[in-house]
Amino acid sequence: xxxxxxxxxxxxxxxxxxxxxxxxxxxxxxxxxxxxxxxxxxxxxxxxxxxxxxxxxxxxxxxxxxxxxxxxxxxxxxxxxxxxxxxxxxxxxxxxxxxxxxxxxxxxxxxxxxxxxxxxxxxxxxxxxxxxxxxxxxxxxxxxxxxxxxxxxxxxxxxxxxxxxxxxxxxxxxxxxxxxxxxxxxxxxxxxxxxxxxxxxxxxxxxxxxxxxxxxxxxxxxxxxxxxxxxxxxxxxxxxxxxxxxxxxxxxxxxxxxxxxxxxxxxxxxxxxxxxxxxxxxxxxxxxxxxxxxxxxxxxxxxxxxxxxxxxxxxxxxxxxxxxxxxxxxxxxxxxxxxxxxxxxxxxxxxxxxxxxxxxxxxxxxxxxxxxxxxxxxxxxxxxxxxxxxxxxxxxxxxxxxxxxxxxxxxxxxxxxxxxxxxxxxxxxxxxxxxxxxxxxxxxxxxxxxxxxxxxxxxxxxxxxxxxxxxxxxxxxxxxxxxxxxxxxxxxxxxxxxxxxxxxxxxxxxxxxxxxxxxxxxxxxxxxxxxxxxxxxxxxxxxxxxxxxxxxxxxxxxxxxxxxxxxxxxxxxxxxxxxxxxxxxxxxxxxxxxxxxxxxxxxxxxxxxxxxxxxxxxxxxxxxxxxxxxxxxxxxxxxxxxxxxxxxxxxxxxxxxxxxxxxxxxxxxxxxxxxxxxxxxxxxxxxxxxxxxxxxxxxxxxxxxxxxxxxxxxxxxxxxxxxxxxxxxxxxxxxxxxxxxxxxxxxxxxxx
Length: 752
Description:
By secondary structure, this protein is α/β, with parallel strands linked by helices. The strands form four sheets. The chain has a seven-stranded parallel sheet with strand order 3-4-2-5-6-1-7, with helices on both faces. Helix 12 links the parallel strand 10 (283-286) and strand 11 (309-312). The model is unreliable at 1-16 and 547-553 (pLDDT under 50).
């Protein structure tokens, strides 16, 4: 591959341009077609290169304006540009955007499997008439011979290959059909230029793109991958419940700010969204298992800020243009650095705050490795190395920005970015000059033909079958570094790469080789200080573990609990209400655990709405405040998360279905709940201040006389025990379910 250039070659694009279009022309065209007065980054150079008839390769981060690099030339040049795009949804989005700037819809079309015969005929008619300047196609469209024959008769201005990293098996979204693009382009028109565009490409992927598309002395324009406004942080995922609590606490502290949480699978998106809802955070789940209409609906909810957070698999995000996403949380480790960069890149696209938090667990890494099990050998090897790179990033103790940029082939000189966890909390550096010399000598002794893991095994003197095969245990260097552990040597390898002392071979991915700087270092060693990688020994959380402690581990203060029951009894008598109408016992238990001393804090307890806290709460918080002061009690964590089990995650669903008068047996079945479980959830909803009109169900279970008798009983009872109620009303042999549903009605009518 030609050496990637930060800027284009100094060429007189105006003079060499066969179309006679120069800088003045494109600035005027930019304002005419898009209403902008100036270009961003390398846009201008890319456009001039393409207009001059030259193959062009654009690497520009998400949000940098890649699309304009081919849209503007297409509008300026005679003929139609064919744009290859991997996603149908993206095509429609792009076509709509172009049409939005134009007076006529026929200026841009897409051609893919989503169109019917009539629509295809219309597109082809506009193409033949010369009206269409941009045609978006899926790679599969180009595999059909009838389409190739049709395109061959058209005047083509150029080919654009969007998301060009799909060509490379080392890219994060490899598509085999992209491999045939050059062959199909040649059949259509081999004379027109090609522009390839991507947001994420390592040097290896860049090389693959240039080779596979057979780009002819391309103008390579690489914008910086640095997003200065993004903050990067990695946290160990020690226990599932603690992680979820940390996320809920973070989002609660960032009210009104939009964010995305990425997870590994569909089940986790649903569970996590439910937990967020349970904790008064507006959230929805998004994954490929939802039907297209529901996905579109939830995407719109997020874009329109009807919900604060979207919990999603990687199915979400392509083509999303929401500039004010303030945080991106990775609940699971992504399968590649490219994925991580692209997903975090959706934060802070307006240049303002963007926080990127990754939760790291060894269990998640194991799951990713497990997913590779049934893949072809070559795909397994590639996938394993991509995972290794992500693990190395997560465990690194040095500047995360520097590590990211290095991965994409960009040299970041500043060793402290001031905007990542490692830079804000720097670790102690240790001298490693002598050890680096040993490392370089071992790499040399192995003829620069082995990857990092193998090199470290030689240094540590760890005999393996592979080492035995090559007889490398007989090397003088075998075991030369036993005085340090694997953590030290792996840290040294990574930081030697960052300092360009060694590098991974681009063509033979993973093989360590000395750079010119490394060769000089052997001859003349100098101080070389490193930071040890993070160990994360406790980061073993598994998403499949139980959530029994999701609400925290604090225990109930029994003495306070009894005192709260007395206050409830007194308030009930004063208001001539049964005690359970004031607060249910699980609400009192929460109070005796969390020690709320204000009305606002009381709202954190189960079954306590804001309205109920204001209506009944003052004597309770006054008692707790006095109790805490007198007994010198230190309150628990300032944030206590409500679990799904305790705070009905089905609340909205239940309310909506009750309003529709859906049979409660059906509601229970649809939510995979037993009838008693559903009634418990309904009681929690009613007790917290929401009215539920269950008359339609009650009338089927009880006649009018029975209903009146039970309601009269609840008006005068002093216990919340339904067992006692059954005993005292034994004459009529009421079931637990009948009494429960009547108490829900009583709470809805009297308690609210």
